[in-house]
Structures are given as C-alpha cells and as structure tokens.
C-alpha cells in the first residue's frame, strides 16, 4: 500500500486560474493579494502576463462556478481558486446565492477531476468579511495553500488513475477487436452510447 500526500515544493510546472467575483471587490481584491503572496512565496510566478497564473474576473460570486468549470474542462490548469464574498443583507438573497455557489464549485471539481478551491467568504457583515480578507488574517493565503497541496496531490494520483483506465480500456478494446475479427465484422468502438 502507498501513502499519497500533496507537497508545497516543485511548483514550477503547476498552472493555476483564479476566478474572482467583482461584487464586494473591496474584499475580493484583498483575497487575491493573499493568494498571490502565498503562491509567490512557494515559487509560483503570479504575473498575469506569465505562464503560471491566469486571472478571470466575473460580475459576482454566483457566476464563479460556471467559469471555474469551463476553465477546469480546458485541461490547462492543475487547480482553480474561486474567490468571492457574499455578505448577508436584509433579504434571503444571501441564502440562495451562497448555497448555489457552494454547490456549483463542488460540482465543478467533482465533474472535471480538477481541484476547484472554495474561496468564497460567506459572512454576516462586511466587517467579518474584511477581517477574513486581511484585517486579522487573509484567507486568500489559505485558499492558495489548498490549491498548491491539491494540485501536487492530483499530479501524484493521475498517473495511477490513467494507468488503471488504460488497462481496463485496453482489455475491453482487445476483447471487442477479437470478437469482431472472429465474426468477420467491423470492430465497433466501445465509446458508443
């Protein structure tokens, strides 16, 4: 048996995308700064014109999951960091938005196999949000650490998953080709639905 664990070293080959909700940008800009600080200190080039980190700004937190999923599907990124701030107001709007954003971000990761980090603050007040975005501590740093660890971990796990998938697909294809040649029929793809 083996033990797999993400590390925070050898970050040169890793690629990240930050998806940032512009709404409450007083908060989200600080979260971006926390992410950048962490990534830089771990050897990642955070320059938007560089090759390791892309930044995508969306109108608000509700739009974050859709864009995160699209980026994950592109296959270009080792991890996606989703940043936003949903602050409770006088209406139930907060409950709907925060619940759907959480579900959407989770679904994007699950559906694509790419780590999609939930970095959307959901707070009762603007003061609580600001405290989490730099006044007391900056959770942007924590979100970047999660992305580094998960990107590293997934790089370790993917070769094992790919080898297992290849072996099972190869066996299925070989069986299909044998069966087709025995019956003098053209081989059919296993990918039919």
Give me some keywords for this one.
disordered C terminus, 5 helices
Describe the structure.
The chain is of the alpha/beta class and 193 residues long. Helices cover 51% and strands 15% of the residues. The protein contains five helices and four strands. It has helices at 25-41, 64-73, 93-112, 126-132, 139-182, and strands spanning 16-21, 53-58, 79-87, 116-123. The protein has a four-stranded parallel β-sheet with strand order 2-1-3-4, sandwiched between helices. Helix 1 links the parallel strand 1 and strand 2 (53-58). The longest helix has 44 residues, at 139-182. The model is unreliable at 162-193 (pLDDT under 50).
Outline of this structure?
With 193 residues, this protein is an alpha/beta fold. It has helices at 25-41, 64-73, 93-112, 126-132, 139-182; strands at 16-21, 53-58, 79-87, 116-123. It starts with 15 loop residues before the first strand and ends in an 11-residue tail after the last helix.
Show the helix and strand layout.
Layout (H helix, E strand, L loop, with lengths): L15 E6 L3 H17 L11 E6 L5 H10 L5 E9 L5 H20 L3 E8 L2 H7 L6 H44 L11
Parallel strand pairs: 1-2, 1-3, 3-4
Helix pairs in contact: 1-4, 1-5, 2-3
């Amino acid at each position: 048996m083996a033990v797999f664990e993400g590390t925070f070293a050898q970050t040169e080959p890793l690629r990240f995308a930050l998806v940032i909700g512009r709404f409450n940008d007083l908060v989200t800009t600080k979260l971006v700064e926390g992410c950048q600080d962490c990534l830089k200190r771990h050897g990642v080039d955070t320059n938007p014109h560089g090759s390791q980190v892309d930044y995508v700004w969306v109108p608000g937190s509700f739009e974050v999951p859709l864009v995160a999923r699209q980026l994950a599907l592109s296959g270009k990124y080792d991890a996606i960091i989703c940043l936003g701030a949903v602050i409770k107001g006088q209406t139930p709007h907060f409950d709907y938005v925060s619940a759907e954003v959480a579900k959407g971000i989770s679904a994007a990761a699950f559906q694509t196999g790419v780590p999609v980090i939930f970095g959307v603050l959901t707070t009762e007040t603007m003061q609580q949000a600001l405290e989490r975005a730099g006044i007391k501590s900056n959770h942007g740093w924590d979100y970047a650490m999660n992305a580094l660890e998960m990107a590293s971990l997934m790089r370790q796990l993917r070769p094992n998953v790919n080898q297992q998938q290849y072996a099972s697909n190869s066996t299925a294809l070989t069986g299909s080709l044998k069966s087709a040649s025995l019956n003098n029929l053209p081989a059919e793809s296993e990918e039919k639905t």
